[in-house]
Amino acid sequence: MLNDTKDRLQVAERIVGVRLESPLVGAANLLKAQEGRASKAFAMRELPFRDLVNVRGELGDPAFVAAFASVVGCPPPSTPNTVARGDQYDVLWLGPDEWLVRSLAPVQTGMLEAKLVAVLGEAYAAAVDVGSGYTVVEIEGTRARDVLSRGCPLDLHPRMFQPGQCAQSVYFKASIVLIPTGDDRFEIVVRRSFGDYFCRIMVDAAASVAP
């Protein structure tokens, strides 16, 4: 396992200079046009190339929690649908033993998975890089909640869903993880395979909601 981890780190270090392609490359022109129409009511942009690692483990195992925190900068949250935050990463609660760790800056080197695997050792835990299969979209504006509510069944009222929380849901037919980051700002983790559909359906919803 240790040699495998070293190999992963070396490979990750070698690919840092490789040109990465956005998962939303197929919707690039649509996004660019929407950005040109951005207003205080609604704006949307991609936050590409984040390290995204799915982690499974047991909160009752002090060794797992300590190892996790040594890399991520904070322990995994135990309260359902909440977010913990370190200096370089935040951690989204997905289930009692499952979390999504995200880099706060666009890096996507693949090194986060290798670092976690190295410290988890023989613990009953797993860390899997999913960064190539997802991307993050940010929306903001006074009508952002209205645009979301067109296709998301969650109660998005500010009293019910606010910064510090997260939730798995859908936007029309696209599965998402939704994270409020401000009064009128959200980050949305969406699968790469739904990227083009997600952008087009959200732009269409915004056209009918936001002035």
Q: What would you note in describing this structure?
A:
With 211 residues, this protein is of the alpha+beta class. The protein has one domain (2-15, 24-209): Probable tRNA modification gtpase trme, domain 1 (Gyrase A, domain 2). The protein is 30% helix and 27% strand. The protein is built from six helices and ten strands. The chain has helices spanning 2-14, 28-36, 62-72, 111-120, 144-149, 195-209; strands at 43-47, 52-56, 83-85, 89-95, 98-103, 126-129, 134-140, 167-171, 174-182, 185-191. Strands 1-7-10-9-8 form a five-stranded antiparallel beta sheet. A five-stranded antiparallel beta sheet has the order 3-4-5-2-6, with helices on one face. Strand 4 and strand 5 (98-103) form a beta hairpin. Helix 1 (2-14) packs antiparallel against helix 4 (111-120) and helix 3 (62-72) packs antiparallel against helix 4 (111-120). The chain is globular. Mean pLDDT is 86; it is low at 1-16.
Write the layout of secondary structure elements.
Blueprint: H1 2-14, H2 28-36, E1 43-47, E2 52-56, H3 62-72, E3 83-85, E4 89-95, E5 98-103, H4 111-120, E6 126-129, E7 134-140, H5 144-149, E8 167-171, E9 174-182, E10 185-191, H6 195-209
Antiparallel strand pairs: 1-7, 2-5, 2-6, 3-4, 4-5, 7-10, 8-9, 9-10
Helix pairs in contact: 1-4, 3-4
Question: What is the C-level CATH assignment?
Answer: Alpha Beta
Q: Which strand order does the major sheet show?
A: 1-7-10-9-8
Number of strands: 10
**Helix segment tally:** 6
Oligomeric state: single chain
Terminal Cα span: 55 Å
Task: Give a short account of the largest sheet.
Answer: 5 strands, antiparallel
Report the mean per-residue pLDDT as an integer: 86
Derived from helix and strand composition plus strand pairing, the structural class reads alpha+beta
